[in-house]
């Protein structure tokens, strides 16, 4: 049995070891209880500068900066379907200083489709709240014989596999939207993947593919110029920018499809910090300029609590996961 003298010598060593073990957690707790944020934050956008997500992020960062009293710096980290940007956030400490403006690409599609995804979004990220949500638009060439969605469905049923749809690539939201539509409508369509949205739209305009799904901001200029015809939107209700275009549900297709942006940080971030971030996000969404940018993209503000966001994301993962498995979708 150790002597009292030897125990006295061991006690300081054990105390130092214990302090070393709890220091990281204590450091985050100290920042939370004293003053958070105490330095600038980063907002990672997993896509290149200049796109819709980037535009929303830059307006959001200005408003978050105002609410938090610290600069929120936008960092564009694109590649690997958005997973490179997401992984960058996961390499940072769980202290709320590194944020991600997430989308279906890196939160839903890529993790479900990749053989070895670099993270598990349901467990590795904590949602702060959602920012925007918008539907896709089903469009055809302006010269198409399909004047309505009913026309398109009749053509598809009369010629199984002869109607093709373009997408921005295998596993892209535009691809999955077409697959979900075909499954719900009970028709056989042929998928034609492209390297990006622009060439897919160009070939839809040119008649090389008969139809495609895309976000309103991308197709509205072509609809207004008369080169594309919208047949349906994938939202629950009609949208302001296309008030005469029916929803899929109005046409008997029980499907809702949305592209969205939500704010995330790394799992393990203290609840107090999540609460502060959510409060700042809720205030930021009241900004008129941000609301206009969201509306201009064909979307709407989509405020939600962290708990509501978690439930929404769980539903998205279930819906798309079931589709990917049942349709044997892969990215090869």
From TrEMBL:
Gene3D superfamilies linked to this entry: Bordetella uptake gene, domain 1, Periplasmic binding protein-like II
Family affiliation: Belongs to the UPF0065 (bug) family.
Protein name: Tripartite tricarboxylate transporter substrate binding protein
Organism (species): Cupriavidus basilensis
Lineage, broadest ranks: Bacteria, Pseudomonadati, Pseudomonadota, Betaproteobacteria, Burkholderiales
């Amino acid at each position: 049995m150790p002597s009292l003298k030897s125990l006295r010598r061991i006690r300081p060593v054990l105390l130092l070891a214990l302090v070393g073990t709890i220091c990281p957690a204590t450091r985050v707790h100290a920042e939370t209880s004293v003053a958070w944020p105490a330095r600038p934050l980063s907002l990672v956008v997993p896509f290149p500068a200049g796109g819709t997500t980037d535009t929303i992020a830059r307006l959001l960062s200005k408003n978050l900066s105002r609410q938090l009293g610290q600069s929120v710096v936008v960092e564009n980290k694109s590649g690997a379907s958005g997973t490179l940007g997401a992984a960058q956030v996961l390499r940072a400490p769980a202290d709320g200083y590194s944020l991600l403006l997430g989308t279906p690409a890196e939160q839903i599609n890529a993790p479900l489709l990749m053989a070895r995804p670099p993270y598990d979004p349901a467990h590795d990220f904590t949602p702060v709240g959602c920012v925007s949500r918008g539907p896709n638009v089903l469009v055809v060439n302006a010269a198409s014989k399909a004047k309505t969605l009913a026309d398109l469905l009749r053509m598809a049923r009369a010629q199984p596999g002869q109607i093709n749809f373009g997408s921005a690539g295998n596993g892209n939201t535009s691809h999955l939207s077409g697959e979900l539509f075909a499954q719900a409508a009970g028709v056989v369509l042929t998928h034609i993947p492209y390297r990006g949205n622009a060439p897919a739209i160009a070939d839809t305009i040119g008649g090389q593919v008969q139809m495609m799904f895309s976000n309103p901001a991308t197709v509205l200029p072509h609809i207004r110029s008369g080169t594309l015809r919208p047949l349906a939107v994938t939202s629950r209700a009609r949208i302001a920018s296309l008030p005469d275009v029916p929803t899929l549900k109005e046409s008997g297709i029980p499907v809702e499809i949305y592209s969205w942006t939500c704010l995330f940080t790394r799992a393990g971030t203290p609840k107090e910090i999540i609460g502060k971030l959510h409060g700042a996000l809720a205030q930021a969404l009241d900004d008129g300029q941000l609301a206009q940018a969201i509306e201009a993209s064909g979307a709407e503000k989509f405020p939600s609590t962290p708990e509501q966001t978690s439930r929404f994301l769980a539903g998205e993962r279930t819906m798309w996961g079931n589709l990917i498995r049942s349709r044997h979708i892969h990215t090869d």
